[in-house]
Amino acid sequence: MNSQNKTPEQGIWKAIEKFKTAWNIHNAAAFAGVFAKDADFTNVFGQQFHGRAAIEAQHATIFTSMFNTSSISILKIYIRFLNETFAAVDVIWNMSGARDFMGNPWPDRKGLMSLVMQREGEEWFIVVMHNMDLPAVPAPDLKNTAAANGLQAKASL
Q: N or C: which end of the chain has fewer CB within 10 A?
């Protein structure tokens, strides 16, 4: 435990809460502050940005346009500690209030942020982030499928 009696999990949750709050108030500097100085960020469009300054600049632009009325909520967080300093973190999110590139309302979205986070002192920062939209159709239950059981499906003639 650190000097503030927080567990590593609590430190990660705090960082994700800062991320969410910064997004919901559309503050690019606060948003970028959750990232390491040399972080790599890939958004849902596959665009890549390197470094906190580039992440801030990109979000300053989109927070005044397509995402200026958007809000996100965090649905689930999965944490796997790689060691005392690094963790792999999956965050399931929901977004509402966004607009597409043409300014049309964008339907509510659900997505996945895949993060590598690093502890620096008492705080956790995002070092690598890949963000993606999840499909609207739920994933099938693969427990009883031929592929999940290691069997090859036979084509019927």
A: C
Residues 6+ apart with CB under 8 A from 7: 1
DSSP 67-135: TTT-EEEEEEEEEEESSSSEEEEEEEEEEES-B-TTSPBPPPEEEEEEEEEEEETTEEEEEEEEEEEPP
What is the total residue count of the chain? 157
121 contacts: CB under 8 Å, gap ≥ 6: none
Which residues neighbour 108 within 8 Å (Cβ) at sequence distance 6 or greater? 94, 95, 96
Strand partners, 76: 92
- DSSP assignment, residue 156? P
- Find the angle CA(124)-CA(127)-CA(131) to the nearest 5 degrees: 110
Specify the pLDDT at position 154: 46
Q: Is the pLDDT of residue 3 over 80?
A: no
Token pair recorded at residue 67: 């995402």
Per residue in 65-99, pLDDT (tens digit) is 999 999 999 999 999 999 999 999 999 999 999 99
